[in-house]
Amino acid sequence: MNKAYIIGSGFAGMAAASFLAKAGWKVTVLEKNDSPGGRARQLKADGFAFDMGPSWYWMPDVFERFFAAFGKTTADFYSLQRLDPSYRVFWPDSFTDIPANINQLKQVFDSWEPGAGKQLDKYLKEAEFKYKTGMGKLVFKPGVSVLEFADMDFLKGLLRMDVFSSIKNHIGQHFKDPRIRQLMEFPVLFLGALPEQTPALYSLMNYADICGGTWYPSGGMYAVVEAMYSLALELGVQFRFNEAVTSLKVKGKKIDKIITTASSFQPDLLIAAADYHHVEQELLPAEAREYSADYWNSRQMAPSCLIYYVGINKKLNRVRHHNLFFDTSFAKHADEIYSIHAWPDEPLFYLCVNSMSDPQAAPEGCENLFFLIPVASGLKGDDEILKTKYFNMIIDRLERHTGESIRDHIMYNRSYSSSDFFMDYNSFKGNAYGLANTLKQTALLKPKCRSSKINNLYYTGQLTVPGPGVPPSLISGEIVARLIAANHPNPIS
């Protein structure tokens, strides 16, 4: 049986591991940290449980599709609850609950802008086509050849995909009210570019939000990690934790040896599910690298973020499970992330309180608060003084908007920032989400998932196809496994 090694146990790495094991490979996952999940690890402290990274469960069809490939369903591992309202948005002097029911959402839109409910129907019909075409065809292409896109049905629908117009203009053609525009633009904020630089193709994210719904898996997003880990173990995948890869030795056109902090291995196949830049620029010898340092420095990165994990000894009444604070300038903060590349003056922020849906997430009578401020990748100076400054800023705003005391009830407080992303995940420029999904960094224009110089080296994850986010990472693992099946069809020997 041929041996495949995978560096990194995030969603992409574990997805690839399971597909390879199913295909007959002997798979070993090498993980730098002490538990699976990568950026989706779990933090437990003082009775509180926090998802360390992803907290939105969108696109439930992608998760179902993954587990169905192994004769399973998500229900075999965790239960799902659709959140209603999906989330709460705080404006400068008010708030709005975004209902899960689309007819109720249309009523909200109409109350802000007469006729906007009808426009929403039109907008979502277009977004549905993009979602079904994108998720059915475009997103599963490995991006190694232009011939992948020589599909007449796909080419006929290309103009309807709106890849050459911006989502900002697209939204503006349907809605005028600034609140509606911000709601429709907010998913794009995490795709890594200003709305005016992001293809209107990504209105498919609005379809995922409004029509697909916002869900909560029992146990949090870490329940998905545990499910994938359990599945991989069932398929025979081996995991070696606390074992960082320190170098890759090349012989001819093959990875000949993997050197780790604890051992060394001779692979028949290697998949890098860790940070692409780190593996290529720091683990490989120079002659085996696909891209130059200048290439990487020219890439537009999605945001990093400043996170706070906070436990309080009281229950809150005026927030929801998911909360978006759009109480300052959306345009200014986006500009600070993507154009100026500076620490923000008055950032928007996000608050997740999943103890509102899951009593196991906090001690009785308590809440777990997850704060996230998106910031530009590559910023320096995320020291304790800076982190304390921003923490006080968002706590002041939370207390002002809710009228509830927070600061005096804090039992636990830990921060996490770009330097932590670098230390824990070797993250390029401390990014949290990968490459920006601009037109110039889409599909064929992303770093390739197969090395052209090393025959047994592949890449998966958020810096290659299809892009950032949990569902795309699951898909990325499947893409690379499919590509391997096409190029290495007989793993059992």
- Fraction of residues in helix: 25-40%
Count structural domains: 3
Per the CATH scheme, the topology name of the largest domain is FAD/NAD(P)-binding domain
Name given to the CATH homologous superfamily of the largest domain: FAD/NAD(P)-binding domain
Number of strands: 19
The averaged pLDDT comes out at: 95
Please give the count of helices: 15
Instruction: Specify the CATH class of the largest domain.
Output: Alpha Beta
Strand content: 15-25%
Low-confidence stretches: none
Please state the CA-atom Rg, rounded to the nearest Å: 22 Å
Global shape? globular
Secondary-structure-derived class: alpha/beta
Would you identify the CATH architecture of the largest domain?
3-Layer(bba) Sandwich
Major beta sheet summary: 7 strands, mixed
The largest sheet has its strands arranged as 7-6-15-16-17-14-18
- What is the end-to-end distance? 5 Å
What is the strand and helix layout of this fold?
Layout: E1 3-7, H1 11-22, E2 26-30, E3 42-45, E4 48-51, H2 60-68, E5 80-82, E6 87-90, E7 95-98, H3 102-112, H4 116-136, H5 152-156, H6 167-172, H7 178-185, H8 204-212, E8 215-217, H9 222-234, E9 238-240, E10 245-251, E11 254-260, E12 264-265, E13 269-272, H10 276-283, H11 293-298, E14 304-312, E15 322-325, H12 330-340, E16 349-352, E17 367-375, H13 384-402, E18 410-416, H14 418-425, E19 457-459, H15 470-487
Helix pairs in contact: 1-9, 1-15, 3-4, 4-8
